[in-house]
Amino acid sequence: MNERMKREAIRYLGYGKNTADDRTLMLIDEAFADIGKTAGPKSICRIFDMEQDADGTIRIGNMKIESRSLSRNLKGCTKVVLFGATLGVGVDRIITRASLTDMSRAVVLQACAAAYLEEFCDQKQLELGEELEKENLYLRPRFSPGYGDFDISYQKPLMQMLDCAKNIGLTMTDSCMMTPTKSVTALIGASPMKVRCPVAGCEACGKTDCEYRR
């Protein structure tokens, strides 16, 4: 656990910029220790050529996406990275067990698992960004189905194109819920324009007038 993960967990718990009490901080430390022992983080990514029609429709392989917010985020991109990641079923199990006996601990585990997953995804994106910059391509922030007007239903074709079930053991229910639950899928635009977006996303960037802002 690093300090950024701890701050993120505290934020997910609703403290904002306030200081968490000693008991919560203790629960956070214990939760990260438990997650570290049980998580089996895995990720998969594939790079595709991307086209945008005049009306903003995005075409990636056989997938056609209509989303104004995603179209704005991907403006100027020539390729897109399809990305999936999961912490594995072990984390789901300890959260489920805690929810039956200690809801306070379960809530803290949920927040810490979210922070742990975010940190894992950020690290994978940093590694990918370093590789793509050798090809003069620069990554935009991750953009997941369900964000803005990027409909959650796009989760299905995205996961199929990544073959998530086979590669990282990630599946989806009929209601678009991922299993394991501590998982994420996303698109990451890759542009020849030399703009280095913060890996933590638009929320971590002070350039509020950016034309690519999600």
Describe the protein's topology.
Elements: H1 3-12, H2 22-38, E1 42-49, E2 51-52, E3 58-60, E4 63-65, H3 68-73, E5 79-86, H4 89-101, H5 103-133, E6 138-139, H6 155-162, H7 164-168, E7 171-172, E8 178-179, E9 183-191
Antiparallel strand pairs: 1-5, 2-3, 3-4, 5-9, 6-9, 7-8
Helix pairs in contact: 1-5, 2-5, 4-5
**Radius of gyration, taken over Cα atoms and rounded to an integer in Å:** 18 Å
> Could you estimate the helical fraction of the residues in percent?
40-55%
Strand content: 15-25%
How many helical elements? 7
Q: Report the CATH topology name.
A: NADH Oxidase
Q: How many angstroms does the end-to-end distance come to?
A: 28 Å
Describe, in short, the structure shown:
It is built from seven helices and nine strands, in the order ααββββαβααβααβββ.
Q: Could you explain how this protein is built, in words?
A:
With 214 residues, this protein is α+β, with helices and mostly antiparallel strands. The protein has one domain (3-194): 3-Layer(aba) Sandwich (NADH Oxidase). The chain has helices at residues 3-12, 22-38, 68-73, 89-101, 103-133, 155-162, 164-168, and strands at residues 42-49, 51-52, 58-60, 63-65, 79-86, 138-139, 171-172, 178-179, 183-191. Strands 1-5-9-6 form a four-stranded antiparallel sheet, sandwiched between helices. The model has no long low-confidence stretch (mean pLDDT 90).
